[in-house]
Amino acid sequence: MDTSYPREDYLPMTSHKRDPSPTVITVGVSAPPRDHLIWSIFNTIYMNFCCLGFVALAFSVKARDRKVAGDVEAARRFSSKARCYNALATAGSVVLPLLLAALVVTGVLHLSKLAQDSVGFFSYQFSTSDDEDK
Question: What transmembrane ranges does the database entry give (predicted)?
Answer without folding.
Answer: 37-59, 85-109
